[in-house]
Amino acid sequence: MIFNNILTNWYSIHKRDLPWRETKNPYFIWLSEIILQQTQIKQGLPYYETFISKFPTVKDLAEAKESDVLKLWQGLGYYSRARNLHYSAKYISSILNGQFPKNYKELLKLKGVGDYTASAIASICYNESTAVVDGNVYRVLSRYFNIETPINSTKGIKEFKILAQQLLPKSNIGDYNQAIMEFGAMQCKPTNPNCKECPLQDGCKAFALNKISHLPSKLKKTKVSKKHFNFLVFLSNDGKTILEKRTKKGIWQNLYQFPLIESKKSLAINGIKRQLENTSLINIENYSVSLYNEKEIIHKLSHQHLHTKFWIVETESLSKNSIDTADIKTYPVPILIGNFIEQFNF
């Protein structure tokens, strides 16, 4: 039994029952793939179900407000995925007259869709002969064939794509692609894989050489930077606060946050007061400041760690840009802000 037959046979027995595996609808498959990028199925499944319920067609998603899409996405992180999803839905609805792209080449034109996502949709929905290569596939192939080329290098990305393409069966491409991804997720796990009961054990070179724990190989990550965030939570006597929209490009673009003071080191209350003296948001003659969290909250992102403090600023009145605290939960915010809002219980 050849490599791909072993995997598809294993998949037919062990695959998880997931809603996007019950359809060939490219919109549903696309939605699931975008949600599950850098997100585990357990976390992503409720979001998928909510999106399908709220936006049952690509036209429904296209007609939604971006703020509503971001609010629904809140908690998943990597918010550029949601912005790209909405942008592409509008592109499909208006430019393509609601017709979803029907091949790999056309799928790549969608914003936020790369080789992996285009390959997944094209093979699952249209049985196009294009291989998927995600983290799970990298792991299976690097171990089975004992490939030490770093998977996050230009050479590695090209090498593994070529190999994956060569291994494709002549038919049932979508099932095979899902099989190798599922196999990597459930059987050939990153740590403590069940090699003793692995159907690929006999041909696995890494197993024979006792190299399972060393593969796949990766180049060292860039150094993670450290930043200090001080959020000013304004509270007025008439039940107002202030949220600001982040308009600059970045992971939190178009999300809302409390006014932010970013610093190179941790600030004490005197430093916050000096900053407040230069703001027009409040009457500096009549306010009080207190620190909400004595211990900094460390919010870890892929490229930076945010050491965060929330400062409560109480005052009689606020500027015209203020909002009612009763409406604060209607705004899309980063999970860091969302967690604070829940804890503070406005």
TrEMBL record:
Residues 35-186 form the HhH-GPD domain. GO terms for biological process: base-excision repair; mismatch repair. GO terms for molecular function: 4 iron, 4 sulfur cluster binding; 8-oxo-7,8-dihydroguanine DNA N-glycosylase activity; adenine/guanine mispair binding; metal ion binding; oxidized purine DNA binding; purine-specific mismatch base pair DNA N-glycosylase activity. It catalyses: Hydrolyzes free adenine bases from 7,8-dihydro-8-oxoguanine:adenine mismatched double-stranded DNA, leaving an apurinic site. Its EC number is 3.2.2.31. Binds 1 [4Fe-4S] cluster. Adenine glycosylase active on G-A mispairs. MutY also corrects error-prone DNA synthesis past GO lesions which are due to the oxidatively damaged form of guanine: 7,8-dihydro-8-oxoguanine (8-oxo-dGTP). Belongs to the Nth/MutY family. This is Adenine DNA glycosylase. It comes from Pontimicrobium aquaticum. The lineage of its organism: Bacteria, Pseudomonadati, Bacteroidota, Flavobacteriia, Flavobacteriales. The gene is mutY.
